[in-house]
Write the structure tokens for this entry.
Amino acid sequence: MGATVSSADAAVLGVSMMSVPLTVQDRCDRCSAQAYVRVMMSASGLEMLFCGHHFEQNSAALAGCSVVVTDDRQSLRLSAS
Ligand SMILES: [Zn+2]
């Protein structure tokens, strides 16, 4: 149900993915947990970082905007398995 913005969605939007990986120093703007998703507003260049939880909460709103999304949650899953 919850709409997620994946790298595939970013490709559909016609934007290029940023190659700089998120690190443990990158923190969610909402709760200061480690950030796994970076969102950049194409118009303003404003960058936001989200943990998986808060990205889920904001993804619906972000889906209507022109944004560049870097989603590193897959690396979280890989390292956990
Ligand atoms: Zn958070």
